[in-house]
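Run folding on both entries below.
>entry_1
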Amino acid sequence: MGRRSKEQGTVDRFVDLRAQGKPYEEIAKELNVDEATLIVWSGDYSETIKNLRAVRYEAIQSQGFATKEKRVELIGSRIDAIKKELEKRDLSTLNTKDLEELLIKYASLQDKLRESVTFTVRGDSLDFDLQEKRTWEG
């Protein structure tokens, strides 16, 4: 194994540690590399570090409740359950008021998570709100 291979291994380990969010001081001690060198490497490999962080973050999100799709599904199911319960209730009771307030909060969360669709036509972006109907003229 030549000097270049050993250095590349050290750089790869640096990229991995930075993507984990480790501070320069800790990495310098582990790799026995001067912090100034690590700062230069950070600039040289910034895109790789960002991409690796994004991949790790995505993996963490996909493991549980954190995915947006799961949050949207949960909020939607809670709204359905609240609506069903409201249909059974006498709307003049305090518990009903609390339940209506909860429905408003969940509906607000659902609106915040709703995404619009963007199409690009001849270099122009067109945003669509899936809740609105639009009429197109030729």
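>entry_2
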Amino acid sequence: MHIYFFNSAVAELYQNDIIPIAEGLKESGYSFHSRHDYWREEPGGEFLFKANPEVVPEECDLVIGTYMLFGVSKHDQSAEQEVFVRLMKKRSANTKLVFIDDSDGYTTPSWRPEFRGCDLICRTKYNRHAYVPPNAVPWAIGLTNRTLRMAASVPEPTERQEAIYVNYGASHPFEHTTRLKAKNLLHPALAPELETYQPPFAELSLPPKDPYDRLMWEQTSKRHSRIYFERMKSCLVSSAFCGDEIPAAPWNPQGYCVGGGKARLKRSCFDAVQRFDPRPLRVISGDSFRFWESLACGTMPMQVDYEHYGLKMSVQPEPYIHYLPVRFDDLDKSVSLIKTQLNSLKSVGDEARGWAIANYCPRVVAQRFLCVSDEARSRLSS
């Protein structure tokens, strides 16, 4: 099978969505080509993605596109975008086209009409309580070999401090509503039993001296930090919240999920209607690196209740076994339930770590990706 990654030419972009798939394919013995050289696994080593100008995507069996081609406005990638759009409109009947959509927000590039030309959209941050394109399936950020390497050795739960590790410094400049509520309401309510451990972030942004760490720091847009992982492993719990709350109506909230005066007016109207709607709020952009880094480190992540807020992954985590769920519309109950689980955290952390590795290590993610891609083509052809 000829596999082709239609990746971005912008070297500074961290194309996190395609890395675990490529790592898993390589581990499973599959070869693949890419549009551009990208991602060194070791200092001075070969690229994981290797460009071959003699191979064109139109002649491959499976073509995989990254959201980084469309989701970053500060780089002009219009020429590459045009080529990918042409692929969506016209290609060989034997070529499957899959787009990995890890964009933040509700309305993403894959909502555009031309993306119905993809056989499949693997959508992280999928919400089952809102409209999604018909060719989209739930996906997740998952684990990369870099994360697994940093978390290869973890301390026993009894050696960890009974604290919540809070670190949101590497994120975008705006704060998601779930994080604000966690820091302002949840963490103080848990403080008597779980202190908040929030060391200064500044030192994590400095270039590492170790060659491997320096390479990963550069390739991940300065997100990689060995100190960060060591701090994560020192705590029993982490604050892994991500996502914004939006009203329960309408089914397609696109009208108020984009900027502008009309959108803000619509949002205010649906915020008012929400007071009479028995359904809970929904959360968009609800998947995060921190959630998976926590699991890999054996640190129990706290995150919004996936089922309650509509979040869906390819393999769903179980509350109180794989993460500590929080409902901000019933915070007192959530705090009480978390407190009752504190004695068991020292045993379920290992189980949660094992679940994450068993279901979201690169090899398993690649196998799942090939399966859903085949199912999508079979469904469309029938």
